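Co-fold these.
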Amino acid sequence: MEEKFMQEALKEAKKAFNKKEVPIGAVIVYRNKIISRGYNLRERKNNSLMHAEIIAINKACKKLKSWRLDECDLYVTLEPCPMCAGAIIQSRIKNVFFGANDPKAGGVVSKAELFKPNIFNHNVNVIGGLLESECSEILKDFFSKLRKVDKLQKL
Amino acid sequence: MEEKFMQEALKEAKKAFNKKEVPIGAVIVYRNKIISRGYNLRERKNNSLMHAEIIAINKACKKLKSWRLDECDLYVTLEPCPMCAGAIIQSRIKNVFFGANDPKAGGVVSKAELFKPNIFNHNVNVIGGLLESECSEILKDFFSKLRKVDKLQKL
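Predicted complex below.
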């Protein structure tokens, strides 16, 4: 079941890829159904807030007409950054599943550990490494293509 | 000069107060001018993302048509939570001035230290305690009024 939802998050990441955005995707699940989706749109929207998770959380709050998403789970292809991890805490999301680690900017296990129990007034259950290879593959693919384009432009 | 801008953030906090929202306000300054303002609207908007800083950052990105706010400073009456501290890092905001500490949920000095140098790819300069007493006074006032209402409702 969890893998099925992460596959849906990967579909969102692919949408970002096709728009030349760093391919990260997320879905939010409520009572076993996807209620919102998001993918990274930072460049296209010229907006630092437009991460996959923030877009999905914004839509979920609107859908449920509540800032409390305490019956919701979030699936995201990359370890959330501190902004997104913080938004997850603010939303009281129950469970977070992520794919690849983000050694440079991750806010859950890599650069900060914001979901460590009993720091904040809400504890998030977190499982990393779900479909990890697919989730990191799409990122590697994106950055290798970007480097090729860079090299060609320098010729 | 810094105090003048924090006074403007306090004006935003007062708008939140008058709407029965936890009174926190923020302004963003670019080349010595306020380009965006925000105050907490979580309850009214039923949205966990609607913190003063997020609202102000969103508006500033739209105004400058850029996700990079690297020539901007942010003034906020309360220590940013991890979501807002992370959004400040994502936006490359240069300097952050905050008023009161948030011992329960602060992401800068209290519960996490996200602006500690050399963790992330952007270092934020931070100054806390600016107009601290005014900034904490409005919060105390809000919560004491809330408790009175609670007591009256229980009579």
